[in-house]
Amino acid sequence: MLIKMTTFTKIDDGSLPTIAVNSAARLSKINPNIYGGFTEHMGRCIYGGIYDPGNPLSDENGFRKDVLEALKELNIPVIRYPGGNFVATYHWLDGVGPKEKRPARPELAWLGTETNHFGTDEFLKWCEVLGTEPYICLNFGTAMAWVEYCNGTGNTYYANLRRKNGREEPYNVRYWALGNEVYGPWQVEQTTKEAYAHKAFQWAKALKLLDPNLILILCGESGTTSWDYYTLRECLKPTRAALSSNPTPLIDMHSIHMYTASKDHLQNATAPLAAERAIEIASSLIDLARIENGVSPDDPRPSICFDEWNVWDPLRAEGRFGAEETYTLSDALAVGVFLNVFIRKSRDLGMACIAQSVNVISPLMTSPTGITKQTTWWPLLLFSKYMRGWTISAHVSCGAYNGGTSPSWLRSVKETPWLDVSASLSDDGFVNVVTINVHEHKDFEAKVEGAKGPVNVFTVTGADVTVTNMKGKEEVGAKETTWDGQDHYVFPKHSLTLMRWKE
Question: In what residue span(s) does the Alpha-L-arabinofuranosidase C-terminal domain sit (predicted)?
Fold first, then answer.
């Protein structure tokens, strides 16, 4: 069932825009896991990012305290690790035990050397300090032993190895991905959809037998491809993996990835709408696989795990050089549109992980002496703080951008309104509405139906779409004001506005 969370009517640019919010229409719960993060052994994400032993800003574990404090502001529920492409040739055993005995290895994903000073126990300890849940991405060669090490409770080899290394109780890691981007020619583990589906189904069965409580994530592509269709069809089928009399599917979530970027502001800001269509298509493919495979309607419907997303131009910020992007206000608005999409499609999303959490294409950058919050930090903070609870109905009437899009196929499948909107009702009874005016030069006066004063207003904008926060001063932040809810509201050009009022 395709549910429209925010509907849109195109009107001419000279007419008065309207945003009509219906707080009584609770459409679907927003899974907090859509505000997940991602840490990969890439560039300065781990070393010099979250882990910097010897730095006076680090704690006794070597964890950067300023980074922990900043990430706690985001209330991140889950963080993916250790990749990404890195995981293809990673052997987790290299990263456990006494650090002086851990081997340095050639790192083939990003062409560096991995010291293995930061590994499974350090990551899981860091998650506990941060107060977040871990999500581990596997390669198949070491999957069973890795799960046993993290979750084993019996008198078995790898559970005992964990105990020997200083951790008596199991970590109880729930989320495990069955590989990363193995469809891609950049991947050491590259394979065909047929070979991957065959192997993933076998490993999923074994992993569920080892630990029935695991939540397994299938490696999808963008949600719009034959890879997604084939792997879902072959893997989303009933089986008696847990020796149960009732066969059930092994797969709990389907992963998709998407990065967007353009030098043109309007193409850049509207590009994340491609993620909305991708989610819709992937959701339909999940339903199709369940129908074709005769899955019982009583079995839980798998959700989508959008576990890599962000604005990233790989030519502007090359992965082999650390992928350290300098983000603009235009990029911040694009991140806001991504997050609007996730709110609108909350029925289908079980998780989303911004790639990545520190330094590498990240809203948070470190130096030896402190941190910088990039332009993209501010939409992420406002959404994570306020856009929780229920997605509610909203209808937008406004003009639209009619030019070229990136990707080019977006123009043929989605409208691109000047005002991009999502709405939620939080558990404390506040209505929250995010409106992103993507127009570079024009303010829009609009009627906001349903608003009740006093309305708290947070605005993210700047002098122009090219400003950044990486030049020693904060050009983009979040300004808080109050509106009485009467008459019309003017949404500034190139801005993100979050309104909230008590229902």
Answer: 307-495
C-alpha 376/C-alpha 236 separation (Å) is 36
Is residue 1 in a domain?
A: no
Give the domain CATH number at 233.
Answer: 3.20.20.80
Residue at 36 is within a domain: yes
Tell me, what amino acid is at 293? N
Rounded to whole angstroms, how far apart are CA atoms 249 and 439? 46
Q: Determine, yes or no, domain membership for 96.
A: yes
* Sign, Cα dihedral of 240, 241, 245, 248: negative
Q: Across 238-389, where does the E strand assignment appear?
A: 253-260, 303-311, 349-354, 364-367, 370-373
Domain count, the chain: 1
SS3 218: strand
Tens digits of residue pLDDT in 89-127: 999 999 999 999 999 999 998 989 999 999 999 999 999
In the three-class reduction of DSSP (H, G, I as helix; E, B as strand; rest coil), residue 323 is classed as coil
Domain of residue 413 covers 6-502
d(CA 5, CA 278): 16
CA 501/CA 430 separation, integer angstroms: 5
- The reply to whether 100 belongs to the active site is no
Question: Cβ–Cβ contacts within 10 Å for residue 419, how many?
Answer: 22
Which residue in 181, 221, 280, 325 is the catalytic one? 181
Instruction: Indicate which residue of 122, 308, 325, 475 is catalytic.
Output: 308
pTM: 0.96
Using CB atoms within 10 A of its CB, is residue 113 exposed (0-12), middle (13-18) or buried (19+)? exposed
Does residue 31 sit within a domain? yes
Q: Based on the residue annotation, tell me whether 181 is a catalytic residue of this protein.
A: yes
